[in-house]
Specification:
By secondary structure, this protein is mainly alpha-helical. 46% of the residues lie in helices and 6% in strands. The protein has 3 helices and 2 strands. The termini are close together.
């Protein structure tokens, strides 16, 4: 996880690759965070291509930074 907060737009929509880049984590770690409930996709019905809001990426970083 990055030490600096993500610089993504809170109103933006991001694919898995970009969400991982913003958080500085791998796809496996993003999947684990999703299963733990630390981050949730904006389209939970689409398991093949989840999309994440910028605000959920920022919230995930804030949760992880507090640990």
């Amino acid at each position: 996880m990055r030490e600096l907060p993500p610089t993504c737009n809170p109103a933006g929509v991001y694919c898995v690759k970009r969400a991982c880049a913003e958080l500085g984590i791998s796809r496996k770690t993003l999947r684990r965070y999703r299963l733990l409930g630390l981050i949730s996709p904006i389209n939970p019905d689409n398991k093949q291509r989840p999309k994440y809001s910028g605000q959920s990426i920022i919230d995930c970083w804030n949760l992880h930074a507090k640990l």
